[in-house]
Amino acid sequence: MTTPKNEATCDWTVSGMDCGSCATKVRNAVGRLPGVSNVEIGLMSERLRLTLDEAKTGRDKIEKIVKSLGYGIEARASGAQKDAAEPADAAKECHDHDHDHDHDHDHDHAGHDHGKDSKAPRRADSGHGSPGHVHDDPADRGKRWFQTGKGKLVIFTAVLLGLAWMVEFVTPALGSWPFIAACIIGVAPVAKRAFVALRLGQPFTIESLMTVAAIGALFIDAAEEAALVVFLFAVGEVLEGVAAGKARDGIRALANLVPKTAQLEVDGVVREVPAASLEVGQTVLVRPGDRVPADGEISEGTSGVDDSPVTGESVPVTKGPGDTVFAGSINTEAVLRVTVTKTAEDNTIARIIRLVEDAEEARAPTERFIDRFSRWYMPAIVVVAALVVLVPPLGFAQPWDTWVYRGLALLLIGCPCALVISVPASIASALSSGARRGLLMKGGAVIEAAASVKQVAFDKTGTLTHGRPAVTDIITFGDTSEAELLGVAAGVEAGSSHPLAMAILNKAEDAGVAVLPSKGAKALVGKGVVAEVAGASAWVASPRYALENGGLDDKGVTQAAAFETEGKTAVAVYRENKPLGLIAMRDEPRADARDAVAQLKKLGVTAVILTGDNARTAAAIAGGLGMEFRADMMPEDKLNAIKDMSEHGGVMMIGDGINDAPALKQASVGVAMGSGTDVALETADAAILRDKVTDIAATVRLARGAMVNIRQNVTIALGLKAVFLVTSVLGLTGLWLAILADTGATVLVTLNALRLLRFNPERE
Question: How far apart are CA 464 and CA 655, in angstroms?
Fold first, then answer.
């Protein structure tokens, strides 16, 4: 199916969406337009993304409708450093795109786990300057509440109400007219937006319910209470805006980690430039105490680098020439020269921000259920309110004023704002809290799945171990010299970045052995590698494969078994029917691996190693860590093992790169280890940036904490609605308490969600 010529993906920032109903209102309004599809709304990230056929609907039409609903809208700037971005016309923010990430691995290895590849927006038009449902303007951020648009609305309605009370006190003969005037003036802009929503096919909005309730109250001679309700509605809007703003501060704080300027060095001359303007290959000077302005590689200097702003790692790490540094990290000791390797929009922090923002699209099953529930909740409440108004007077001759009043009170608790925001607010807080500690999860669905895992499957090499094995033993056969053995093995492995290959190549370099010329290297999946070395075929393979193909005799197999019992990995090196020798390597477990397994057990989660390595080596590693293991596994064996484990509950698979992709995708949650690598951030459901195995337990704790918070929020939202529904019908609570119940519940669930920002998942 070909994409229409005029179709493009458009991205806007929509300011002022403080509750779930706001997002629903925008989604439904633009989703009805011809040529609009794939509408995505990010409540916490204030994002509107959609696919637009410009031949049917123009971008200006989208913006006009969003503004008419009372929200600000502007073209979305890209990258982590939005403050440095120039305001873009919305037309420039629509673009065709098709990203295809192709990851390739050069060869499989001898029965081992491998494959290490392992704008601050410009001010938005609020869409209205008059009082009413005035939404969050980016220009209001950082101001005191009374300086914001919403704050001014509260002051305005308070003045109206105060004047009405004064006039009533001074001239009682005027009766309720001052309150009628205050109510009408205060509710007019709300009614205007209710009418806009109605015209767009959305009759059930908080504005429409508010308008009906206020006007209805006037007709039953409850003008004073109607004016008070309008004022409380405005107060609630301020509280919602403050709470929502705090919930978003975590994501905004990430963007602020990257400095706005950089010290660019060109031909020995240093000048200050915007960090967002840096290009790949340029050199920047990073002084002690400065933040690194871009992802890069140290070209000169050695210093302690504090990566805690990016990965959450609390202890500064000494880095020197050739080491990678992240934008936002802090140089603690000496001057560094850093060569830029990624532009501002592609640095690690920018990608983390995009991941957190895009994660709202991966909604949790609980959130999807609540969305479905909320669609009929408001119409159902309207029907119940109508029945409360009509049935008692018509069926039982009850007074109309009493039951109309109670019906109007019911209308005010009919908006499911608190319920709809209860899940995304918790998810956003959990994602932000995790991102600050190097724990990345791609959305609510991942959080919900991680909270219910019962088993964790670990890849071994590069995950439980460092992934940097070193040669420990070399055994030669016949008249083969150690130099010849290393030269052939290094020739077979030349050009590979596999950890075991690197160990052999490093050993050859340290021993001063020249790598023999080779060509045609070919992976033998799960068995080894073959290449033409110095004009003849040579193999580096597993002992089992070598035995079957004349590359190892019984004595060699016995020696390989002895190495494996010691927890070492042995490979056989041979030519056609001529064994050359064995090379043994050992990859030490990470220091925190045993503690991580113990923490998982405390959480009721069992841990198992799935490895392509031999059983003896796997047993040595697993025994030291107190884990179960499955060895000699091909990639498809790992996939089948995950399927089997899934029959007994949720499974989390931990791998270090693309070679584990099938198993990572099959698991309930696939987690990639890796400090900010493309693979870690893009291929799996979650990523651990600090390479700490204990962060797996921390991820489970964070997910479970988020789900507890979500259940609390749903209980608060539904509980308050249920209580006030009953008390309103019984006449125990009136209009002003009903509106407090609605906005109060929204504020409560948002503030409760904010507690996750202080949640420490590392605490057992």
Answer: 9
Long-range contacts of 597-601 (CB under 8 A, 24+ apart): 597/625, 597/626, 597/627, 598/626, 599/694, 599/697, 599/764, 600/456, 600/696, 600/697, 600/700
d(CA 179, CA 232): 14
Terminal-residue alpha carbon distance, the chain:
52
Burial of 53 by CB count in 10 Å (0-12 exposed, 13-18 middle, 19+ buried)?
A: middle
Contact partners, residue 712, CB within 8 Å, separation at least 6 = 752
> Model confidence at 259, in pLDDT bands (50, 70, 90)?
confident
Residue 459: active-site member: yes
Q: Identify whether the C-beta of residue 76 lies closer than 8 Å to the C-beta of residue 457.
A: no
The model's pLDDT over 392-430, given as tens digits with 9 standing for 90+, comes to 999 999 999 899 999 988 888 777 778 877 888 888 889
Cβ atoms within 10 Å of 142's Cβ, excluding its own = 9
Phi, psi of 639 (to 5 degrees): -60, -45
Of the candidates 56, 117, 130, 122, the one whose C-alpha atom is nearest the C-alpha of residue 93 is 122
Average pLDDT score over residue span 84-101: 42
CA nearest neighbour of 154 among 230, 87, 220: 230
> What separation in angstroms does the CA of 503 have from each of 109, 296, 377, 466, 476?
13, 26, 63, 13, 18
Rounded average pLDDT over 163-184: 83
Runs of H (alpha helix) within 57-98: 59-68
| Helix ranges restricted to H, 4-58 | 20-31
pLDDT at 600 over 70: yes
From CA 539, how far away is CA 528, in angstroms rounded? 7
**Residues, the chain, total?**
764
CA 683 vs CA 112, 663, 678: distances in Å: 21, 12, 8
The structure tokens listed for 454 are: 């019962």
In whole angstroms, give the CA distance from residue 50 to residue 7. 10
What confidence score (pLDDT) does residue 557 get? Answer: 92
Q: For residues 379 and 373, what is the distance between their CA atoms, to the nearest angstrom?
A: 11
Closest CA to 614 of 578, 649, 562, 653: 562
The predicted-structure confidence for 325-338, as pLDDT tens digits, reads as follows 989 889 988 999 99
DSSP 188: H
C-alpha 500/C-alpha 112 separation (Å) is 9
Domains present along the chain, CATH in parentheses = 7-95 (3.30.70.100), 261-346 (2.70.150.10), 470-586 (3.40.1110.10)
Q: Tell me if the pTM is above 0.90.
A: no
Catalytic annotation, pick one of 136, 459, 685, 691:
459
Helices and strands, number each (H, E), in the chain: 23, 27
Name the β-bridge partners of 584. Answer: 473, 570
CB 304 within 8 A of CB 318: yes
d(CA 583, CA 17): 62
| Residue 251, token pair as written in the block | 């994501």
Q: Where are the alpha helices (DSSP H) in 325-413?
A: 348-358, 365-396, 400-412
Relative orientation angle of helices 223-255 and 417-435, to the nearest 10 degrees: 20
